[in-house]
Write a structure and sequence with these properties.
Layout (H helix, E strand, L loop, with lengths): L12 H12 L4 H9 L5 H8 L13 E9 L2 E8 L5 H13 L5 E4 L4 E9 L3 H18 L1 H9 L3 E9 L7 E9 L6 H15 L4 E9 L6 E9 L8 H17 L1 H21 L4 H12 L9 E6 L2 E9 L7 H5 L1 H9 L5 H24 L8 H11 L4 H10 L7 H12 L11 H8 L15 H16 L10 H7 L30 H21 L5 E3 L3 E3 L1 H18 L4
Antiparallel strand pairs: 1-2, 3-8, 4-6, 4-7, 5-6, 8-10, 9-10, 11-12
Length: 577
C-alpha cells in the first residue's frame, strides 16, 4: 500500500501525528507520547512555534547556555549560546574570562553593505543595454518605493544599482548588482522583495530574467575582533613557545585547506551558537563565512595571528549579516530574551559580540591543540510570522494570506493591509459630485469648529479652491520636487491611506491666509467653479501633467486621487464625513 499522501498540510496536527504513527511506526502509542511530551503546556506559545514552519508536529529542543565574562570594547557581556556540542560553552566562558584580565576583546564593524542580484540573459548589443539601464535606473528605484519607505526612515534602503557584464563567464549573462543597507534588520525578505520589483520593472522583450535573489556572500558586511597582550602575559610554563606554536597553527590553517575547514568549523561553533540564540539565520552566516574564506581562490583561515616586538596579537575578520529586528528575532521569546541579555544590541553591536565569540572559540581550540591536544545546523511563512507578531485573528490571517497570494510580501505591506482591515472603512469624498460637495459644505457656518488645525470653515473651503488652482494652471507654485522624493511619495496616492492629521506642506504658510470672499456661500461657488475647470483643462489636454508641490509631476488620474484624499481630509476636519 502506497504511503504517498495528498493534502497532508491541510490535516490538523493530531491528524498528522496519527497518520505518521500509523504509516511509519505501526501505531506505537509510545511514539505519539514522545512527540506530544515535547509540546509546550502553554497552548498560545505552542501555536506560535507551530506557525514558524510547515507541517509542525512537535518541538526539537536544543540546550541553551550562557558564557559570562566577555569584555568587548570595555563593556561586560554575558553571551547566550544554543548548541548541542559539548564543551563549546565551557570553552567560550573560559577564554572570555582569560582575556577579561588582558584587555578584553577589541572589535569594530568595517562595513554593513549587503548584496542582491537580478540575473538575466540578453543577446543584443551591450551598448543598447547600457543605454536602456541608464535611462531606466531612476524607475528601478521607484519600483521599490513602497517596499523601501520604512527602511529608509531608519536610514537604510538601496545604496546603488549597477549593471554587471558577466558574458566572459557565461554567454549573454548579465546582472543588476544591487547594494543595500538594512540597518538592524538582517533584511533577506526586504532585499528579495526589492529585487523582484526591480526585475519586473527592468525586463522587456529582449531581457529574460532568470532569477532575482539576495546573496549570502557579503564581503562588504565585515566585522573585526581581536585580542592582544605582551607575550609574557599569556602565562603558562613557556609563554614564548606557546605564542610561537599558536602562530604556526594559524599559519598552517592559512595555507592548508584540509586544516582550514576544521579550523573554521571551530570558529563557527561559537558563531552559530549565538546566531541561533538570537533567532538569526546560521545557514546564511555559514555559507557567507566559508565563501569569504575562499575569496582569494583557495580556502583559508578566517583568523590571523602575529607575534611581533614582544606582542601576541590574534584576530578574526568575517562577514556577518545579522538582524536584531524582524523575523524570528522579534517573534521567538527566547531570541528576544537573548537580545535583552546582551543589553539590546544594535545589529552592528551584535556583529561585534558574535565575532568575539567566534574568536574565543578558535582561541580555545588552538590553545588545546598546541598544548594538551583536543578531543573531540519564506514568503508565506514570513507572512504568518508578521501576522502573529501583530496578534492577527484567524479571520484576519485568512484575509491577509488570500490578499498576498499573488503579491510581494514585505513587513510594511502586511502591516498596512492588516491596519486597513482593522480600521473603519473610509467614506471618501466624491469631489466631482457638485450636489454632494455643496450640500455638505453648506452645513458649515462661521461658528463651525475644526477637530484639528487652525483654519476656520471658510478658510478651509478657500484652501481647497486654491490648491485646485494648481492643476488648473492658475497658481504657479515655484517648488522643485526631486525625482527620488517624488518616486517615494507618489505611490501613497495609490493606497487606501488618508492624509495624516498634522501634515503640513512646505509651500503653504504657517498660518491661515486672509479670506478672499465675503461669505461661505461665495467661497463654495468659487470652489465648485474651480473643480469644473479642473475637469475641463484635462479634457482639453488628456496628456496634461502638472507638478504637485509635494508629490511631483502628476497626470489627470493621479491629480484626481490626490483631490479625493485632500477633500476627504478637510471634510473630516469639520466633521462632514
Amino acid at each position: 500500500m502506497s504511503k504517498i499522501i495528498s493534502g497532508f498540510s491541510k490535516l490538523s496536527k493530531e491528524e498528522k501525528i496519527d497518520w505518521l504513527a500509523e504509516n511509519y511506526f505501526n501505531s506505537q502509542p509510545e511514539i505519539i507520547q514522545t512527540i506530544k511530551q515535547y509540546w509546550n503546556v502553554d497552548e498560545k506559545l505552542q501555536q506560535l512555534h507551530d506557525d514558524f514552519i510547515e507541517n509542525t508536529i512537535s518541538n526539537f529542543y536544543m540546550p541553551y547556555g550562557i558564557a559570562p565574562n566577555f569584555v568587548i570594547n570595555g563593556r561586560e557581556y554575558v553571551v547566550p549560546m544554543v548548541v548541542e556540542e559539548s564543551s563549546v560553552v565551557a570553552a567560550a566562558s573560559k577564554v572570555a574570562k582569560y582575556w577579561s584580565t588582558r584587555g578584553g576583546f577589541k572589535t569594530k564593524v568595517i562595513s554593513t553593505t549587503k548584496i542582491g542580484q537580478v540575473h538575466f540573459i540578453y543577446a543584443g548589443d551591450k551598448s543598447d543595454l547600457e543605454k536602456y539601464f541608464q535611462a531606466n535606473k531612476t524607475e528601478l528605484y521607484a519600483a521599490t518605493a513602497s517596499i523601501t519607505k520604512n527602511m529608509e526612515k531608519r536610514g537604510g534602503g538601496i545604496l546603488d544599482i549597477e549593471l554587471a557584464d558577466k558574458t566572459d563567464k557565461l554567454s549573454d549573462y548579465y546582472q543588476l548588482h544591487v547594494t543595500f543597507e538594512t540597518k538592524d534588520s538582517m533584511g533577506a525578505n526586504f532585499i528579495n522583495s526589492c529585487l523582484e520589483a526591480i526585475a519586473k520593472r527592468f525586463q522587456n522583450e529582449e531581457i529574460e530574467v532568470i532569477m532575482s535573489i539576495l546573496s549570502n556572500y557579503v564581503p562588504e558586511c565585515i566585522v573585526q575582533a581581536e585580542v592582544s597582550c605582551p607575550i609574557e602575559d599569556l602565562g603558562g610554563e613557556n609563554p614564548e613557545k606557546f605564542a610561537y606554536k599558536f602562530e604556526q597553527a594559524v599559519k598552517i590553517a592559512e595555507i592548508e585547506p584540509y586544516r582550514a575547514v576544521t579550523h573554521n568549523k571551530g570558529i563557527m561553533n561559537g558563531i552559530d551558537a549565538v546566531v541561533l540564540a538570537t533567532g538569526n539565520d546560521f545557514r546564511a552566516i555559514e555559507s557567507g563565512a566559508h565563501a569569504y574564506a575562499a575569496r582569494n581562490g583557495e580556502y583559508s583561515s578566517l583568523t590571523y595571528c602575529e607575534v611581533k616586538d614582544g606582542i601576541f596579537r590574534f584576530w578574526i575578520e568575517i562577514p556577518l549579516a545579522l538582524g536584531t529586528v524582524g523575523g524570528l528575532t522579534a517573534l521567538h521569546p527566547m531570541a528576544k530574551l537573548s537580545l535583552d541579555m546582551m543589553q539590546k544590541p544594535s545589529a552592528r553591536t551584535l556583529m561585534q559580540i558574535i565575532a568575539a565569540a567566534g574568536l574565543a572559540q578558535n582561541f580555545a581550540a588552538l590553545r588545546a591543540l598546541t598544548t594538551k591536544g583536543i578531543q573531540h545546523g519564506h514568503m508565506k511563512m514570513h507572512l504568518m510570522n508578521i501576522l502573529n507578531q501583530h496578534n492577527a485573528t484567524a479571520t484576519e490571517k485568512d484575509q491577509v494570506v488570500a490578499y498576498f497570494e499573488n503579491r510581494t510580501v514585505s513587513h510594511s505591506a502586511v502591516v498596512e493591509k492588516l491596519n486597513a482591515l482593522r480600521k473603519p472603512s473610509i467614506q471618501w469624498v466624491d469631489f466631482s459630485n457638485e450636489d454632494e460637495v455643496r450640500t455638505q459644505l453648506q452645513k458649515l457656518n462661521s461658528d463651525s469648529n475644526p477637530s484639528f488645525g487652525n483654519m476656520n470653515a471658510q478658510q478651509m473651503i478657500e484652501h481647497l479652491s486654491a490648491v485646485t488652482q494648481i492643476p488648473n494652471g492658475n497658481w504657479k507654485v515655484d517648488i522643485f520636487v526631486e525625482d527620488e522624493k517624488a518616486a517615494r511619495r507618489k505611490p501613497f496616492l495609490n493606497t487606501d491611506n488618508e492624509i495624516q492629521v498634522g501634515f503640513k506642506a512646505s509651500f503653504l504658510s504657517e498660518n491661515p491666509v486672509p479670506l478672499k470672499f465675503n461669505s461661505i456661500d461665495e467661497a463654495i461657488d468659487d470652489l465648485i467653479s474651480q473643480v469644473k475647470l479642473f475637469f475641463e483643462v484635462f479634457e482639453k489636454d488628456t496628456s496634461r501633467k502638472v507638478t504637485h508641490p509635494f508629490f511631483g509631476e502628476l497626470d489627470f488620474e493621479y491629480w484626481k486621487k490626490f483631490q479625493v484624499k485632500h477633500f476627504t481630509h478637510h471634510f473630516k476636519q469639520f466633521g462632514l464625513v
